[in-house]
Write a structure and sequence with these properties.
It contains 5 helices and 5 strands. By secondary structure, the chain is an alpha+beta fold. The structure holds adenosine-5'-diphosphate and magnesium ion. The site of adenosine-5'-diphosphate has 21 residues, from helix 3 and helix 5.
């Protein structure tokens, strides 16, 4: 096995299926934080990762499923050997017609909302990928690397 193959090995992985209820967002946040703690993230980084995840899950519940509690949101969280986390949040809801517009800061289809969910995800994670099809659903992939600690010079 060469170095590159080793870097892309899975260290640990969980899969969660939740009913689309607002109460479950806090559960997902806590699970994500507990799982991400297996990696060398700082507390602040873990805070940011769980915030990004809760934005994605809230979007699936509120927008994807229009708050219908009898739908399901799926999460796949992977920790990589090379020091990164990947979180996939998937719904089979209404989908997004104009992804570019949806991801613009302050754009929202719901009156009274801030429209900053995607902007938060992008500022808290290294990479945010969104795939969506109208009538089929939305998948958000969030990635963040573990930063190497800066060597002290003295
Ligand atoms: N999972 C989803 N399913 C359907 N539409 C979504 C989904 N996620 C986001 N959207 C659309 O993208 C818009 C922007 O999302 P976001 O930046 O989180 O802002 P907000 O949630 O405040 O509206 C939402 O208003 C909605 O129209
Ligand atoms: Mg949102």
């Amino acid at each position: 096995m060469n170095v590159n193959e080793k870097d892309f090995r899975v260290k640990n992985q969980i899969r969660l299926t939740i009913q689309s209820r607002a109460e479950n967002v806090a559960f997902v946040r806590a699970c994500t934080a507990a799982f991400a703690s297996q990696m060398d993230y700082t507390l602040e980084e873990i805070d940011e990762i769980r915030l990004a995840v809760s934005e994605a899950v809230s979007n699936s519940i509120i927008h994807g499923y229009k708050n219908d509690p009898y739908s399901q949101v799926e999460l796949y969280i992977t920790l990589w050997e090379n020091g990164g986390i990947e979180i996939v949040v998937e719904d089979h809801g209404c989908g997004i017609a104009d992804l570019k517009q949806a991801m613009e800061p302050t754009f929202s289809t719901e009156p009274g909302r801030m429209g900053l969910g995607f902007a938060f995800m992008q500022s808290f994670m290294d990479q945010v990928e969104v795939k969506s099809r109208v009538g089929q659903g939305t998948t958000v992939i969030l990635k963040r690397k573990v930063r190497q600690p800066v060597e002290s010079k003295n």
